[in-house]
Amino acid sequence: MREDNKIVFTGPVGAGKTSAISAISDVPIISTDAKASDMTINRKGHTTVAMDYGILHLGDKSKVHLYGTPGQERFDFMWDILTSGGLGLILMLDNTRPNPQKDMHFFLHAFKDYIADVPVVLGISKTDLNPRPNTADYAKMLAEVSQDLHMLNPVPPIFEVDGRNKEDVKNLVMALLFSIDPGLGMLP
Amino acid sequence: MTDKAQIAGTPSILVRGIGLDIRKEAVFRMAFRMNRKANYSLLEADDHQVPDVAIADLDSPDGLAEADKFRKENPGIPLLATTVVPNSFPQFVTLTKPIRMETLFPALEQLLRPSPMTRELPLQQPAEPVEQVQNTAAAATPAKLSTSVQQPPPAREKPSFDPNQIEFFDPEQGLLALVQRAIRDQIPVGIVDRRNGRLLWRILPEQGKVDASVSMEEAQAIFREGEENLVLRDGASFADNDSVHSMTVTEYLWQIHAIAADGRLSKKIPLNRPVKLRRWPNLTRLYPLPEALRLAAFLARSPASPALTIRMLQVQPQALLNFLAAADALQLLEYSPASGVASEPAIPSSTLAEAQRPSPAKRGFLGRLLAKIAGL
């Protein structure tokens, strides 16, 4: 159980993953630069990968690891490592990108095995810069994009967020937890 | 920590879960909470109290091995095995998935019915118990279940809920109807308090926004003083000293319907028929309503009637009814408006029926994480 207490933040570059992790992490976020070395990477050439990492301490030595995937699509080999076990996936999409639907398709399919077992939450960033598509549009996109997916929560939360805003990030994470168990926090 | 329901004067019946993942545990907990006849309580994994009964999921990866082990170590404790293939496990008293309230509790009662002496007997003659369990389950009609579920709650610290006390409001009449029509027809209008001529809201549908001179709390107070005090008026202006803020039409509809509901159920929404959330409200950009995240998660997962939702989630009825009114205003709900008695499964059967991989996280841990996040 200890090693599986992970929440994975993913999405394209600039969607706000690093800011979101920073907003709730108990420790300053760690960005890991690592030299590529394994066979998978070598097939793609020598490169450098980066990963964001934060921690939520819960007392009694329990903690939740917050991982931010690299935004670059070519680094998807890492995601299997990040997502072996875990609590859920927070997919952050940048509304100013040219084709958010394509981004959604890519990241949900990249994590298709993972989201069959854990819930996903969608955070849409930069809606102040570009209000369309809105969350209703994203819900329609999701219906198209997820036709060949088996999602644990096929009706996921889709919220507008600013990764720098702690309240927004808290809502994303709480929505994720309630998606696991709506009864959490009920009166004993 | 155990999940103790505290039905007055009724001792807890401790239940050990075997091979249950966190979602199944959650559903069992909800089912136990809403059961009025007995005080079932699912033990946490680290709670080593001796259970009164065990429930095993034989279809989970380790369920069968763990169930065998449990029975060897605890021959006197009855075990109810759940599976989609009951004929494959003749050694167990089985309950066929999908599990329903109508089958679960009669089965548990059946297992617990023997005296303490008979409980010492090994449960290795399953043919008769299985048949009894299945017959008992079959005998429980949905109507009977519905009646039992709708009994007034016993004395415990749950939100009180009496279906007969539910009050209704009609969002298709009065001010709300006029607001909806103005938005639909793209007609700019103002809403004025006729007692003092004050402009409270200016609705500008073409711009997709509403200017407001009152807060949510002030608006609530004005509504409680009487909706008839509010009238639509063209050309009204805000006073110079009004502090005016803007919101989207969506935010306004969410807010004004929650205010107007004020703990009442929309006449459009049936109390005892399933309601499903078509998609989540954009809760980070809407006025925060109590329990909105939990309610959205629950109703997005599987349909449930308002009455059942209140019982299963233990939310205050007002919180649910305001949420439903607001979500319905944004056309996020699916429901059948037909009247009639409840016919839904008491446990979202799809949730139980799905074979999920065991989750590593435990409920207590998630509860601590929730508290941590909420307190940040």
Structural notes for this entry:
- The complex is a heterodimer of chains A (188) and B (376).
- Chain A is 30% helix and 23% strand.
- Chain A contains six helices and seven strands, in the order βαβαββαβαβαβα.
- In chain A, strands 2-3-4-1-5-6-7 form a seven-stranded mixed sheet, with helices on both faces.
- In chain A, β3 (48-57) and β4 (63-68) form a beta hairpin.
- In chain A, α4 packs across α5 (135-145).
- The longest helix of chain A is centred in the last third of the chain and has 15 residues, at 166-180.
- Residues 33-49 of chain A have low confidence and may be disordered.
- In chain B, the strands form four sheets. Chain B has a five-stranded parallel sheet with strand order 2-1-3-4-5. Chain B has a five-stranded antiparallel sheet with strand order 10-7-8-9-11. Chain B has a two-stranded parallel sheet with strand order 6-12.
- In chain B, α2 (63-73) links the parallel β3 (53-57) and β4 (79-83).
- The longest helix of chain B has 13 residues, at 22-34.
- The two termini of chain B are 24 Å apart.
- The interface between A and B is large, with 47 and 48 residues.
Please outline what is shown here.
The complex is a heterodimer of chains A (188) and B (376). With 188 residues, chain A is of the alpha/beta class. Chain A contains 6 helices and 7 strands, in the order βαβαββαβαβαβα.
Layout of strands and helices, then pairs:
The complex is a heterodimer of chains A (188) and B (376).
Chain A: E1 6-10, H1 17-24, E2 30-35, H2 39-44, E3 48-57, E4 63-68, H3 77-82, E5 88-94, H4 100-110, E6 120-125, H5 135-145, E7 158-161, H6 166-180
Parallel strand pairs in A: 1-4, 1-5, 5-6, 6-7
Antiparallel strand pairs in A: 2-3, 3-4
Chain B: E1 12-18, H1 22-34, E2 39-42, E3 53-57, H2 63-73, E4 79-83, E5 93-96, H3 101-112, H4 116-119, H5 127-139, H6 142-149, E6 168-169, H7 174-184, E7 189-193, E8 198-204, E9 209-212, H8 216-225, E10 230-233, E11 245-248, H9 249-261, E12 265-266, E13 275-277, H10 292-301, H11 306-313, H12 317-329, E14 333-335, H13 349-353, H14 363-375
Parallel strand pairs in B: 1-2, 1-3, 3-4, 4-5, 6-12
Antiparallel strand pairs in B: 7-8, 7-10, 8-9, 9-11, 13-14
